[in-house]
Amino acid sequence: ACFHQIETRDSEIHAYLSTNRERALEQAARIDDLAAKGEPLPILAGVPVGVKDVLTIEGLQATAGSRILEGYRAPYTATAVSKLEAAGAIVLGKLNCDEFAMGSSNENSAYGPVHNPHALDRVPGGSSGGSAAAVAAGMAVATLGTDTGGSIRQPASFCGVVGILPTYGRVSRYGLIAFASSLDRIGPFTASVRDAATVLGVIAGHDPHDATSSPLPVPDYSADIDKGVKGLRLGVPSEYFAEGLEPEVRSAVEHSIDRLRAAGATIKPISLPHTRYAIPTYYIIATAEASANLARFDGVRYGFRAKNSDTLSAMYRRSRDGGFGAEVKRRIMLGTYALSAGYYDAYYKKAQQVRRLLTEDFLKAFTEVDAILTPTAPTPAFKIGEKVDDPVSMYLADIYTVTASLAGICGLSVPCGKSQEGLPIGLQILGKHFDEAMTLRVAQTLE
Ligand code: GLN
């Protein structure tokens, strides 16, 4: 049914960069065999999933949305994907995304934009636009995306689906093509909160292949999901309801807050005073790390290589020039500048100090509240082409998401209403480090 849906809808949505029908049908047949033998079935038996094309699967393409990886086939499988497959999920294919996950609209993919299933002239959000759109259009039951500064939560909000940003370290990054290693996280997109809890439970956990993955045990994320919000303290930060927030988004979010109050939660106004420094801090740290991570794409080891170069250095330069798109080049230059001798203290070191202050804002708030409620994005999905020529206005679309990324805390986006034009609006629920269960419980109350 999902392949049928891909055939009928994906020519206009363009969520998939590749599908692997035979491989998927083989996986499905193995599940059928188990069922026929009366063997116990794993938790995701037969569930069709899609995977953002920044995650590797042995033998399959991994483009990261970039020309520089054209033709590259991965030699091993990302842990999050192996865990899905071990749980019986069936991988349908690889999903479109912004090049190296850099973007907020999916317009930076070298393979063309993704269209929002709710309005084809609109962006699906980014960078995991294909992952969000595939679930919204019924072209997968669950998908994996990645979130470095909002790339799961913001497209989930634009496409009207659930998207989880797990705590940093909760899900192994082994097999994820790195953008900004101290910020990158992998998480699920699904149509319901309960499904999101199930998929998170499968992909979370320690992995000896990723030294930053946490040894903490993985709880049963569905156990407390129906407990409701009675007696919980939910914080509403004034900084997230200021200038730039579209009135329709504000009223949908406020309506959800009212519903949570009516369900027995205590709503507390709070302040996260360093919020206004988050965008510049994020764009210094993310670009600095990206400039280092992307140094490996030299035309020798992976994918695309420029032809007919006279010298080795010309081959490097021409491969990188032809292989990377404009946004990736912009970030390599910004990041290289921020890390260079003479500027390091003024930019990178300062950004790390502000990152600590932003984290402390959250740690302090979480002594008073159990979770924090904000809009996921200041506007519903914008039109394709509307912001492409204005990177700064594109960066501002991340204003409510980059803070949790910098602080390492968890969060999710859950649909909370629609604009007059019928475009989905998302509510962001932020939780303490490793308290995903709390955010799921609050989200479930609204479903
Ligand atoms: N939009 C942000 C950026 O362009 C976040 C991207 C992401 O989370 N991968 O960096």
UniProtKB/TrEMBL annotation:
EC assignment: the record states: 6.3.5.7
- GO cellular component annotations of the record: glutamyl-tRNA(Gln) amidotransferase complex
The segment(s) forming the Amidase domain are 1-440
Active site location: K52, S127, S151
Q: Which HAMAP family match?
A: GatA
Q: Which purpose does this protein serve, as stated in its record?
A: Allows the formation of correctly charged Gln-tRNA(Gln) through the transamidation of misacylated Glu-tRNA(Gln) in organisms which lack glutaminyl-tRNA synthetase. The reaction takes place in the presence of glutamine and ATP through an activated gamma-phospho-Glu-tRNA(Gln).
NCBIfam families recorded: gatA (TIGR00132)
Q: How does it assemble?
A: Heterotrimer of A, B and C subunits.
Q: What protein is this chain from? A: Glutamyl-tRNA(Gln) amidotransferase subunit A
Source organism (scientific name): Alloacidobacterium dinghuense
Gene that encodes the chain: gatA
